[in-house]
Amino acid sequence: MLAKLNIFSETLKFPTDLYVMVPTPVSDDYINGRETNYLKPDVKFQVLYLLHGAYGNHSDWLRYTNIERYAREHKLVVVMPDASNSFYQNMYYGSAYLSYLTDELPRVMQQMFPVSLKRENTFVAGLSMGGYGAVRSAFERPDLSGYCASLSGALDIVSLINETAGDRYGNGITDVFKWNNIFEHPDQVAGSDADLLFLIKKRMQEGKMLPAVCQMIGREDFLYRQNRAMKEKMEAMGVELHYREYEGTHDWEFWDHHIQDVLRWLPLTNNPVME
Predict the structure, then answer these.
(1) Is the Cβ–Cβ distance between 217 and 245 less than 8 Å?
(2) Which regions of the chain does DSSP assign to beta strands (E)?
């Protein structure tokens, strides 16, 4: 089942769009004699919150990949919210997308759909800006999700802010992120919770049970060096990290192919769960 929703968000203060995929039997299940009687009142499904990148919206993963088929094969609920170009922050001038993603949205999904409440059955992943959002949200609320995955993630936001001041990448990225709208003081992001290395260290010092991280990047990606540097720093900190690099660049061919690797990395049951 694919549901397109438009819900009023109390956090964002406006209606927002999202897609939700719930595994349901399809014709080839019947033709090939596969199990079709798994939709029962007492069952739940593992859930993946799947985040879009810059220039994108909640429909991107559906339009440009085969995520619907992949999710159905794994009997996985997939939630695809919209976050504009917020970088998944509680914006200074704008809306509180981080709070929406880590508080309101999971509560609403649990009320509306048969998704598991357990940390080990809740995952978050994303591409580019959404790769950062996945790691940020998972470490923001490590009690909610046990696993996060970044594909071509813009993980070092401190460097990104500094480097896009002069559009060093030459791809117009400066025009996408209005840093003064996202942060009150963009030059003070280092050492704040928006700085992933700072946030991870903070959670470690708090003694929290931390999520495992999957990090994938293409060697021709303009974020490759940033990802290599972040890998080394996270490993030095003791983050449970699954790092892979491949041939490829910052495009949908890479993301469609390697989201399948992310699904293989996640501890998916490929069946409904009881809670």
Answers:
(1) yes
(2) 2-9, 14-21, 46-51, 76-81, 122-127, 147-151, 212-218, 241-246
Q: Are 61 and 98 in contact (CB under 8 A)?
A: no
Total-model pTM: 0.94
Q: Does any domain span residue 183?
A: yes
How much is the pLDDT for 95?
Answer: 97
CB burial of 95-109 (b: ≥16 within 10 Å; e: otherwise) equals: bbbbbbbbebbbebb
* In contact, 64 and 252? CB cutoff 8 Å: yes
270 domain residue, yes or no: no
Q: Is the dihedral of CA 234, 158, 105, 127 positive or negative?
A: negative
φ and ψ at residue 9, rounded to 5 degrees: -95, 120
pLDDT tens track for 218-264: 999 999 999 999 999 999 999 999 999 999 999 999 999 999 999 99
pLDDT tens column, 126-164: 999 999 999 999 999 999 999 999 999 999 999 999 887
Q: Are 225 and 153 in contact (CB under 8 A)?
A: no
Sign of the dihedral defined by the CA atoms of residues 61, 67, 68, 71, in that order: negative
Among 183, 120, 125, 132, smallest CA distance to 157 is for 132
Neighbours of 61 (CB within 10 A): 29
Question: Is the torsion defined by CA of 157, 103, 64, 269 positive or negative?
Answer: positive
CATH number of the domain enclosing 48: 3.40.50.1820
- The SS3 of residue 20 is strand
The model's pLDDT over 25-79, given as tens digits with 9 standing for 90+, comes to 777 777 777 776 677 778 899 999 999 999 999 999 999 999 999 999 999 999 9
Please check whether residue 220 lies inside any domain of the structure: yes
Length reported for the chain: 275
